[in-house]
Amino acid sequence: MKRETILLIDDDSSLRRVIEFSLAEAGYRVQPAASGEEGLALFGKEPADAVVTDITMSGMNGIDVLKKVQEQAPGLPVVVITAYGTIESAVEAMKLGAFDYVTKPFNRDELRMTLERALKLRRLENENRRLRDEVIGKYRFEGIIGRSETFQSILDLAGRVAGSDASVLVTGESGTGKELIARAIHYTGGRATGPFVAVNCAAIPENLIESELFGHVKGAFTGAVKDKEGKFELADGGTLFLDEIGELRIDLQAKILRALQERTIDRVGGTKPAAVNVRILAATNRDLEREVKEGRFREDLYYRLSVITLQVPPLRERRDDIPLLAEHFLRKYNRDAAVSFAPDALTALSAYGWPGNVRELENVIERASVLRRGTTITVSDLPEKLAGVRHGIGDIILNLPDDGLSLEDLEKSLIVKALEKHKGNQTRAAEYLRITRPTLIYRMEKYGLK
User: Fold this and answer.
1) Using CA atoms, how far apart are residues 192 and 20, in angstroms rounded to an integer?
2) Cis bond before residue 355 (omega within 30° of 0)
3) Do domains 5-134 and 316-392 have the same CATH topology?
4) What is the average pLDDT score of the chain?
């Protein structure tokens, strides 16, 4: 383990030697300097992990050293040494950002303990910064897997809106990766260093959801034994992600609307509104436009949330991405083994309809990784629902004319036959064709089908 380096600056040679010996004995690597100028020259050649400097020195004093160190390495811990008569200077140093000071005469343990506290805090800050950078890197758009044209267009739009504070509504079936896209928006935008607080509105009991979102004060209801911050306050300065927002009661929708408009919230049982600064990202698998028409969702809140709407396509509409995602999950669950897919397994994975979308695919790959008999996953390692799946259009007998055909005419014909098969029911026809109902309606309009 690398020893931490302490830059020691003191023009008192005898005291400097005593401190140097004490710190070296404690396991530190010490760089001694007899003046502020010499110390900064050493610091420029080899940065230290902490600086110990006397306040009163001929030439450049400790305050000047502190300022220069902070210019070159903001946040680096600096401990100042002061005599009893110069405590005011030490207090000034603290105001300028010094970590702490010790007063002459001091014993070796006092300085060691002060330094250890400073370095421990520094290590924690560095670790937090590393973890934050790791999280930001993990959830950026570059980490989202998908090369299909429809999915890439969604990511492009999400990337363009990430830098703003606009509310975004992410729609799509369960398991399509709506929260992953919401996290990417947060960690790519200006609030990346702030909190990302996710709330599943469908998972919290109705009698608790208001308290969870807005917090409560002590005594507001039975069991409220102390004040509690809600998710809005916890997300202050960052992003609040409201998943399954279509499940919220109408009265709570009104309170969320007020929070968005006024940027304040009222704790349950409270008397004073609290200011909050949050960006709202929301997600739902419901058709909120239909919910608005049928009176189950507030129209004003819908328009507040859907400044930008991102409709994430189901996995069956981005089949080019299935092999990529399957390989990703295979590596995730087989880090210590070189495991691969047999061609028949990839064919079955690509042909399946995936009603549970990416979440279901991950579950299947994890299961196959546990049950595999060797280093190759074959179709026999997959669930029966995949092993017996038909392979789609390749199994249909087509009489291909020698002079070619129109792909658009073929698509139009398939849409007509699917509608005929399901007696004009657009929802069932869309499911049969493995596309969404809005996609079917768009293509019907494209081909002039009534």
Assistant:
1) 42
2) no
3) no
4) 87
Q: What is the pLDDT of residues 124-155, one digit of tens each?
A: 888 877 776 666 556 677 778 888 888 999 99
Q: Find all residues with CB under 8 Å of 353, minimum gap 6, and list them.
A: 316, 389, 434
- Does pTM surpass 0.70? no
Distance CA 79, CA 111 (A): 9
Among 2.40.128.590, 1.20.1250.20, 3.40.50.300, 3.40.50.2300, what is the CATH number of 5-134? 3.40.50.2300
Asked if 63 and 40 touch (Cβ cutoff 8 Å), the reply is no
Looking at residue 138, its pLDDT comes to 63
Query: pLDDT of 171-228, one tens digit each?
Result: 999 999 999 999 999 999 889 889 999 999 999 988 889 899 998 888 888 777 788 8
Domain 316-392, what architecture?
Orthogonal Bundle (1.10)
Largest CA distance in the chain: 102
Tally of CB atoms within 10 A around 87:
13
Domain boundaries, the chain: 5-134, 139-313, 316-392, 405-446
For residues 267 and 230, is the Cβ–Cβ distance under 8 A?
Answer: yes
CATH entry, 405-446, from 3.10.20.310, 1.10.630.10, 3.30.390.10, 1.10.10.60: 1.10.10.60
